[in-house]
Amino acid sequence: MAAEFIIDCLLFHDSKSQAIALDDISDHIGQPDRFIWVELKSPDSQTITHLGDELGLHALALEDAISTHQRTKLEEYDKHVFIATRTVQLWESRMELGETHLFVGSNYVVAIRHDSGSGYQRVSERLQAARNGIKPGAPYALYLVLDLIVDQFRPVIESMQDRFQSLESQLMSGAKSGRDTLERLYAMKRDLTTLRDVAEPMQDITQDLIRLHPGLSTKELKAYYRDVQDHAVRVSAAIDRLRISTSDAMQFHLASLSVKQNESVQKLAGWGALLALPTVVFSLYGMNFINMPELKWPWAYPALMLATGAAVIVLYRRLKRRGWI
């Protein structure tokens, strides 16, 4: 058996925990006073098949666990529940998407994760330090896993908020921005859409556990499961607010670009009008009319130059006052 896939394989009995081999699970699984916690990271199909033999898992659930990119779902089989959920966490200063498959039986929980994140070490530690009358068991372990998955959204959302505030400050400061800023806003909206698709199904998972699986959301833990659901709802609401703010920022940016473009067109039109006036006047004298009596006047040329210059100055001041140049 490939040990590199196994992160944890713990047996809890008589308020004590000990590490056991994956091959020994079947020796303890039939004893209801014992609980087994297993965490695997990106195992191969052989390891998952062997785990299924040890726990007696359903073949269809094993097929789902072998293949990644599963949709978030909760499926109930004869002796266990299978949960596929997508995860996200802030890992090495970037958003790391992952996937976790859970097998939950009467006295075991198996977490199979596919990501590069920190894993479920916190779950293992809290199971070993269980107090307040809570015993390590499937209901408590499942709650700890779901609680950790939802909690990992918070740093990601905070990072997104900082990212948005930076872009918003750049937009509001009037700093030179263009296609690059628009691309960054669009990239952020795309990340938020992905984040929403990961977060929203968690509400359905926790709600189904509370309503349809009283054996897992026990009376003692129901309040804890409701707290996870409340956190999932707040995560989705925070993501939606950020998506709306990002969309508004994109509209503001596009409107700003449109205004700047209009201002440029106005300035070009204003300077064009200034150039058109003397162009029209002087072009008349290149048409070789026979009767142009002013050509014989001694002051015709300076008068024409002064009149044209005065007209240009008047037009310039009017355009300047209206902000066209």
List keywords for this structure.
325 residues, alpha+beta, Beta Polymerase, domain 2, Methane Monooxygenase Hydroxylase, Chain G, domain 1, seven-stranded mixed β-sheet, 57% helix, 16% strand, rod-shaped
Explained architecture:
By secondary structure, the protein is of the alpha+beta class. The chain has helices at residues 25-28, 45-55, 59-66, 121-128, 138-151, 153-172, 179-212, 222-284, 300-321, and strands at residues 6-13, 16-19, 35-41, 73-76, 81-91, 94-104, 108-114. Among the domains are: 1-134, Beta Polymerase, domain 2, CATH 3.30.460.20; 258-321, Up-down Bundle (Methane Monooxygenase Hydroxylase, Chain G, domain 1). The protein has nine helices and seven strands, in the order ββαβααββββαααααα. The chain has a seven-stranded mixed β-sheet with strand order 2-1-3-7-6-5-4, sandwiched between helices. Strand 5 and strand 6 (94-104) form a beta hairpin. Helix 5 runs parallel beside helix 8. The relative contact order is 0.08.
